[in-house]
Specification:
single chain; alpha+beta; Potassium Channel Kv1.1, Chain A; 3 domains; 4-stranded mixed beta sheet; 15 strands; flat
């Protein structure tokens, strides 16, 4: 039997940090009046940081009188104190630190190649310092786009701006931020929200329009001025991801600012459903799900496509349990829309995600294109399972079924292979689909936490 006593180990190493008699490293951090000198042990720094390992191995660090010396003016004493305590004890306490402190820690830990601390600082900023992030978007964007590892913070900032543009002062958004925003392929937001943000930002940036945002009072010069401001941004809008109603109500009133070629193509798309030749095709954030992350969306879309990689889809949310409450509405709404449907199911007390896709959703469907699937969590790409239909007859069934002594409306993929009824999900292996359950002979039952259903529209 293996036993671990990490807490005692951490205490012992922490006490070494305070023992300056045996240190062989002096690190001067900070600049101007905010400077401080720290002492440490090279053997511990080398073991805990790839940066220090390389520094000592390559001998580019200064050594005098058997003492190594570093000068790090770009790291503040507050941040380096956190780093050094983490290196020696493995402990981090950010509860009383400011957003500025934690952001500095993020940058410093990236430079010193301390991945675990970097990830913790990034997560803590997102989870605990949202107000500070909103107040410092320009600072964050100017910095994090220099670091590949900061993608989580980049995506969080972009999604926050786009999902709730009314809560941000668009005057503070640099044009580089807007451009980066429009270039993203995996934003979990509606394209019409991206358009609304761009228009709001453009008006704020255009002299003469800031106090005249009512377009019913605009003249040709006002439209030309806005067109000039947004030149280079309009082609980045994914117009095919905007619904017909939103296009006519919120985009078409600004047709004077849209380049002629793009306007003609998107008009033809909305009137004739003809795909544009030059306008950006792929909608971003294809599945607006609270259950799965974007990389799982891409996997599901690949499964739907099979080998037809040139197809694009729009996923319209028709049901969400947390929003619509009545679990039996999912059956009615899926059947009512009639076409292709994707269903996602998150289980309670577990991170497991199950789901199914069918090109038709009627009372009884025969199809070779439906499939069911599972993921271990919302971002799982290693342990995922797909189970394609084997017997096309009754690939999808729905109606009244019996569970125990209760009769409930249900929706099934392959009889009861994946059965959605009441607040439970029942899995079993049968001859309709390939094996999805862990056991060949034993059914599995999960309590449901969330359900989402999407109509799938090829565009």
């Amino acid at each position: 039997m293996k036993s671990n006593y990490y807490s005692e180990l951490s205490k012992d190493f922490s006490s070494i940090l305070n023992d300056s008699d045996k240190t062989d490293v002096i690190i001067q951090v900070g600049k101007n009046e905010d400077t401080e000198e720290f002492r440490a042990h090279s053997i511990i720094l080398r073991a805990r940081s790839q940066y220090f390992e390389k520094a000592f191995s390559s001998r580019w660090v200064t050594k005098k009188d058997d003492m190594f010396t570093f000068n790090k003016p770009n790291i503040t004493p507050v941040d380096f104190d956190i780093i050094l305590k983490y290196i020696y004890s493995g402990e981090v306490d950010l509860t009383k630190k400011t957003g500025e402190n934690i952001f500095g820690l993020l940058i410093a830990s990236d430079e010193l190649l301390i991945k675990e601390l970097f990830n913790h600082a990034q997560d803590y900023l997102i989870e605990e310092k949202t107000t500070w992030i909103q107040e410092n978007y320009n600072l964050i964007f100017d910095t994090v786009y220099k670091f590949m590892n900061c993608k989580k913070l980049q995506d969080y900032c972009l999604e926050s701006i786009c999902s709730n543009p009314q809560s941000f002062n668009v005057n503070l958004l640099d044009e580089k931020i807007i451009h980066n925003l429009l270039e993203q392929d995996d934003l979990q937001v509606e394209e019409i929200d991206v358009w609304n943000l761009l228009i709001k930002w453009g008006i704020k940036q255009t002299p003469g329009l800031n106090k005249n945002s009512d377009i019913t009072k605009w003249n040709n010069e006002n439209y030309e001025a806005l067109k000039k401001t947004l030149d280079g941004f309009i082609p980045l809008i994914r117009f095919v991801g905007i619904s017909h109603n939103d296009y006519f109500d919120k985009v078409r009133p600004y047709k004077a600012i849209i380049p002629n070629q793009i306007y003609e193509e998107i008009e033809e798309f909305y009137i004739k459903c003809t795909l544009p030749n030059t306008t950006n095709l792929a909608p971003r954030g294809m599945i607006q799900s609270k259950i799965i992350k974007q990389k799982l969306s891409n996997i599901i879309i690949t499964w739907i496509n099979r080998k037809n990689l040139n197809s694009f889809y729009k996923f319209n949310l028709i049901y969400r349990l947390s929003r619509d409450r009545n679990i039996f509405n999912v059956r009615d709404k899926c059947i009512k829309q009639g076409g292709p449907v994707l269903i996602l199911i998150k289980t309670k007390n577990l991170d497991k995600v199950f789901g199914g896709y069918s090109p038709l959703m009627l009372s009884s469907v025969s199809t070779t294109e439906s499939f069911i699937f599972s993921f271990e969590n919302s971002e799982d790409t290693k342990n995922m399972k797909i189970s394609r239909v084997i017997d096309p007859s009754n690939a999808i069934t729905s109606g009244w079924g019996r569970w125990g002594k209760w009769q409930k409306e249900e929706i099934n993929f392959g009889d009861c292979n994946l059965q959605l009824t009441d607040i439970y999900l029942h899995l079993s292996n049968n001859d309709k689909y390939e094996v999805l359950c862990n056991s060949k002979y034993k059914d599995e039952t999960y309590e449901i936490d969330e359900i989402e259903a999407f109509s799938v529209v090829e565009i």
